[in-house]
Queue: 4 jobs
Job 1
Amino acid sequence: MAELHTGVGRQRGARPWPRPRRIATLSVHTSPLHQPGTGDAGGMNVYILEVARRLAEADVEVEIFTRATSRDLPPIVETAPGVHVRHVNSGPLGGLTKEELPGQLCAFTAGVLRAEASRPPGHYDLIHSHYWLSGQVGWLAKERWGVPLVHTAHTLAKVKNAQLAAGDRPEPKARVIGEEQVVAEADRLIANTTVEARDLIDRYDADPTRVAVVEPGVDLERFRPAPGNRDRVAAAARRRLGLPATGYVVAFVGRIQPLKAPDVLIRAVAALRERDPVLAGEVTVVICGGPSGSGLDRPTALMELAATLGVADRVRFLPPQTGDDLPALYRAADLVAVPSYNESFGLVALEAQACGTPVVAAAVGGLVTAVRDEVSGVLIDGHDPADWARTLGRLLPDRLHRAELARGAARHARNFSWHRTASGLLAVYGEAIAAHRARLASELAGGPAMSCSW
């Protein structure tokens, strides 16, 4: 496979890449203003908004186009100086599933093109689309506007279908075809990790010279170890959230759907009860999130599973947490579990570690980058509840080892920041703009198309 490059590294090069003035960011299926952990809102929402803020701080204006879902939403919302969210009327104002949204892409695209048409020519220097639905819109807009398209997939259908959770629905063929089209048409493809980059190249035949790895970040001001004694901090956080003052807390944070596999954690506690009933009786599993995707088919499935396995008394359910309550939940936990079948990166894992809480995660996708095995947490091969029970049974009673992992978690998380991510993206943006200008110049001169590679 061709050598991969990171956007972060390229900005240190000698070549002065051009910097965009304004970027059109496309997020069709979910708004960055929606609460993560509900509906289709998750890590991508956090990514888009956090990156936009950091780009604006670097004097790059960002306009985020998303679908209007309520009459109460103003047409344009300024979330920070230089960052505007524009609500595009496309289809019914109520919520639509991702499966229903392709039928509204024409209406959404029309709204995006009309917004640009009201501006002076050349208003946007670049388009950054997120998820394949947005990529379809960006593909047309880049042709109409004559600007480069940068695309971030966030999840890939072929990868999800290859690692499908039991009972989950495979991604439709229409999405696979749509992703293949976007991969072929985008000027640059942003991968969160080298694993995702390889998936784009091996599974989607992406041109390696157009794939750049730029790792996501974490808000290190919001997510950080609280000052003071860790035990007292955890106790205060548990009081705040109404969690048991004693015993062990293992938390899951995310959307409730088979892909995220919170059932693995509940089954693991049931398996732990068979292995060590005394220890299992001291464990509280906290499931924090709302039903999403195919999880909407049976929103009470986890409660029913806990009752069937006889561990309902060991499981607590919390709605998605906002503000300071989310960092408080991470600090209240002895361990945070991320048992997903696939993650393009795993922002929850990074947020938890930034708060100084070790993570137990499935060794899949971006989680092998987000978590350093036996340094900031533990990676588990597969989703066998018995394996998860053994890991919980080993870590929870070992206070010294958990303290060591907690220190490693905080150190590891400090390697990631949204400023670092934005810097990496700016390098890729600049390279895409330079390549686009070189190609236009060559076409005007009547010569063969030129490219500007890493």
Job 2
Amino acid sequence: MSTQHPTPTPAAFPTVAVVGAYGHTAAFVLRELRRRGGFGLLLVGRDPSRLDAVARDHPGAEARVADLADPAALDRALTGAAVVVNCAGPFAATAPLVIDAALRAGIPYLDVAAEQSAVLATFERYADRAREAGVAVVPAMAFYGGLGDLLVGAAKGDWEEADEITIAIALDSWLPTEGTRRTGRSNAGGHVVYKGGRFVPPAAEPTSSVWEFPGAFGEQKVVEYTTADQVTVSRHVRVPDIRVLINEAPLRDLRDPGTPPPTAVDADGRSAQTFVVDVVVRRGGEERRASASGQDIYAVTAPLVVEAATRILDGRATGPGALAPASLFDATDFLHALAPAHLTFRPHVSS
């Protein structure tokens, strides 16, 4: 089934297929694509009524119904797309299906996965296949995975190896979407940390410490955490230990089944949540640091993945394969491009 709405997009514009187009993060992705202009939109999902409702909000977009488990239907849904952005979780289930379709179509693939297991599997399964197909496959191009990875790339500069990398995250709250909760349930027990140059199970009781964040967050009690950042960073920096730390307040919110979903507080649909991500790369007696802050971790995913898609399409990417963001893009230039509209970026300083 395909529903065409008025105001067709000029043929010269590249078309972006957004899979899972009626999800919370997808709404931000579609809004960012429309804000930038110059893109055709294909809305892909399995629920025709929800797709049609989204299409009415985006004149010129085409809604294409497809069950991701049906390769032929998915191939038809991606026909004419120049790139596909997968916003449909849980990604452990959806990513292989959509990546396979992208490879069959010969188009770049990006997703917004935060699941370590899904991101690890993407790199392990598709590194060679994507390179041989001449296609870029970029998992975790989102707040978790993408932003921290780009900050590491900006902080390390010309270092190709380090002794330790720490990614410290502070959120003033975490109002999780139902998709976040569903993904958390499906990924229970699948977490790892990166120690001694390999992925190992985390400690039963995470280590706590104190971190001095830049800006308003200041000193916070933090605990070790598991995110896609450990996976992405390990793909392009030779380092024995990658730590991710997070302050305690958002974890309390996430664990509380009564915590409500995010509520929009501005015209862009963002919640009031604020964040800062602070990265320190250490080698010998020297450390290099970079940080970024902003509003709403779901909303900031949209400019991250749209900027990535734009740079792949216009040739500002290093090459095909399953690649982490900082090995595919100029990390400092990328982050500067998002500031100040989407985040505040503090480039690396050495000490």
Job 3
Amino acid sequence: MKALHFGAGNIGRGFIGKLLADAGIELTFADVSPALLDALNSRKGYDVHVVGEQATVEPVSNVNAVNSAGQDAINLIAEVDLVTTAVGPTVLEKIAPNVAKGLVLRHQQGNEKPLNIIACENMVRGTSQFKQHVFNALPEEEKAWVDAHIGFVDSAVDRIVPPAAAGTTDPLEVTVETFSEWIVDKTQFIGELPDIAGMELTDNLMAFVERKLFTLNTGHAITAYLGQQAGHATIRDAILDEKVRLVVRGAMEESGEVLIRRYGFDPEKHAAYIEKILSRFENPYLHDDVERVGRQPLRKLSAGDRLIKPLLGTQEYRLPNDNLVRGIAAAMRYRSEQDPQAKELAELLEKVGPKAALAQISGLPEEGEVVAKAVALYESMH
């Protein structure tokens, strides 16, 4: 089996690419970074540092790389059996035109073998959104063939992969936590279902997508935002702060109650899942900055994302949401010189005031109770 994976960054190398290579799949990375491409092609492999109670170094071998913007990537799409991505939600649209060209070439070459495409991004139904970008780039007459021969498979991914340690000069060095979860929607595959260790198949993906979004992503973001407010530099420092931990746990319990009502999750098992997430945040081997985890606050405060979506669920089922609202207020206070969205947020707050700004970003009613509560908390957080 052959696979092409877009994105040779830390998640690409440390998570999805590693699982594919470990499964004995002939793997090519596609990226635009000359340093990554050169290193992968000269060494054909790299080490993954897995950190936890037992730290291990796991080698990945027999890989190579092509430029994702070039003809080699297009040629490979015409012949591989699987295409995966870990490029970040905003980059999917940029790689779509080349993927579309590869699919057209596949048709021209008469390759009728099923091809499945899985976007492994931190977003809800990312592959379905990617499919829209690809179809926007396809000639009209190719769309029916692509629909018949290409599976666009949604997935939920979960593994904390912090940036490389300061002082590391090896562009391929990557550190990951022990825990990983890759859940894919088996109803969307074309052809045989793949058998890849570490890939879990489900026919109820949204339950797992929302479980991760409402627990890991919600908790991670609130830890970062409250952590920054309390002057902590790392996620571990923040979650070990009892005041922060109380709100983070409370928020995950509030969002968890939504999941239990919506999907019938077992309350005891979900409580254990929350504990697992909290222990991951305090992993002493993961040096993860609150500033990195908090970045892109406009996206994180949007209606379909980790703070507002669970909040809307609490309104739907008439459940408490005080901790989620506190997390939203802290997100409004997030500041970072390195993050364009943080600057945009600060400018919007300055220009229209917190009430109108939050309503505009989140889609929540400006005169509603939640906006009033969040703004009062935001103003008390000086």
Job 4
Amino acid sequence: SGLTADCTSLEIGDHEDKKEGKVYKDLLYQIRPAFGGNIVATIINPEHRPQMATVREGVMKKEILDAGYKGEVIRHDVAKYVPETDYVVKVIERHVEKAKHNLKGAPIVIAGGYGMGSRENFDMLFELAKELHAEVGASRAAVDAGYADHDRQIGQTGVTVRPKLYIACGISGQIQHIAGMQESGIIISVNNDENAPINAIADYVINGPVEEVIPKMIKYYKQNSK
């Protein structure tokens, strides 16, 4: 059977194979970016079972823990299906490295795009993040330009985040980026282009250059934060 890794969405649907004249019911649609994020592919397994997929961290909404929830756990005897010698694995050594940031779990994310202009200007976002106890993210264009590190990239080819507050600074809002942050609680866009696509999904839009707006935000929060 096949396995689709790093899916950004899972759906159930039907598929018609016109060549074979067959209709498959209730297949698992395994949706993920392909070709470097330039297209979104929908992958199916019509014939083979099981249908398997892994999902990118942050895509699924975390539900509130219910201590009383009971699920059915079926423990199969693997030896009945394959010889144990086929799965001999030895762990030689283990390395644990502390995470550089908590982008996926942060309640507030400040993200910068190509419109930030330089890596130095990104320092403003880190200064604002310090005042708001937030994490800093970036669009793919900003990462490609060298303004931010790759592990901070948000979008289809980066991480998916769903913070309570998302502040997008100098981000135009390509569909690949929006896919990674559209589930945020409140979205604020800081952009000098009033027609930027991200403004269409933003709850609040601050129309102006990031070089002027962000220092004002930093000054305000420094004066008013307890």
